């Protein structure tokens, strides 16, 4: 995962250097078969650009939407996605697992 | 995460130091935890017990949640890749360097002799032409680094071993027979190192696989480095 971290965190640093708002999403817990291991990062900027992944694609769109608010409000939040969750059903975690994501502003 | 904490995280990672970001998920308070047991950031104060737990996770390179009195903490460990510093751009190194890279190590080959350390003999390997003690003084081997000396030349191997023995390298190995090693131990002790310190050197280097060809010796060296990396006790010699 070290190579991943280098790319993703360097992108966050580059965005910050350009003066953009940036949010960092991290998988903090998984139940059942999580698609990405605990610790996986996704970084999002205030223009909707993103790099990395927290699920391999199924919930990225929802996380990116939430990220816009986190960047605006400068306050972290926890997000949970799972099979019993209506929102998750909507965005679809195909693997049948559940994950908790911590989404924080780099500000 | 504050920009200041993020900048510190990036700086520590650039220095290849193991570091963990600890976040209290209940209130967002954070600090950085180092493998030395120290922390950076006054927002989140860790108890000794939590500090030990974080330290163990950092050593294992694992991330996850732990429970504390003030709420659930999330520990995200950042560990540098394992690396192998090979002293001596010799024949064995031509096998060991690519093998170690395939096994996931960042490989550096150090040799002060320009004729040995050519790109032609070592395509795609990070070569440093210079004296190993000077190079290790600039970038000391960390707890994720193994150091192996293969030149057979005390002028090059001894300073490298002395520098490595003063570092946190997780493995130090030296090529040479038991007789050569006994003489080496005497020289290192004469240089002021204790016998206990010198006992860290694995010599003759590598697991005893019986092979004598350069590739076979490379396999035995790499095997011992991998075994040490996974906490296997060193076999008696």
Report on the architecture of this protein.
- The complex is a heterodimer of chains A (107) and B (237).
- By secondary structure, chain A is α+β, with helices and mostly antiparallel strands.
- Chain A contains three helices and five strands, in the order H-E-E-E-H-E-H-E.
- Chain A has helices at residues 2-17, 60-73, 86-91, and strands at 22-31, 41-45, 50-52, 77-81, 98-105.
- A five-stranded antiparallel sheet of chain A has the order 3-2-1-5-4, with helices on both faces.
- In chain A, a hairpin with a 4-residue loop joins strand 2 and strand 3.
- The mean pLDDT of chain A is 85.
- Chain B starts with a helix and ends in an 8-residue tail after the last helix.
- The longest helix of chain B has 16 residues, at 214-229.
- With 237 residues, chain B is of the alpha/beta class.
- Chain B has a six-stranded parallel sheet with strand order 8-7-6-9-10-11, with helices on both faces. A five-stranded antiparallel sheet of chain B has the order 3-2-1-5-4, with helices on both faces.
- The model of chain B has no long low-confidence stretch (mean pLDDT 93).
- Chain B is built from eight helices and eleven strands.
- The interface between A and B is medium-sized, with 21 and 20 residues.
Total strand count of chain B, please?
11
Radius of gyration of chain B: 20 Å
Helix and strand run of chain B: HEEEHEEEHEEHEHEHHEH
Largest interface: A-B, 21 and 20 residues
Spans of chain A of 5+ residues with little confidence (pLDDT < 50)? none
* Number of H/I helices of chain B: 8
Overall SS class of chain B: alpha/beta
**Helix segment count of chain A?**
3
- Mean pLDDT of chain B comes to 93
How many strands, which pairing sense, and closed or not: the largest β-sheet of chain A?
Answer: 5 strands, antiparallel
Q: How do the strands of the widest beta sheet of chain B line up side by side?
A: 8-7-6-9-10-11
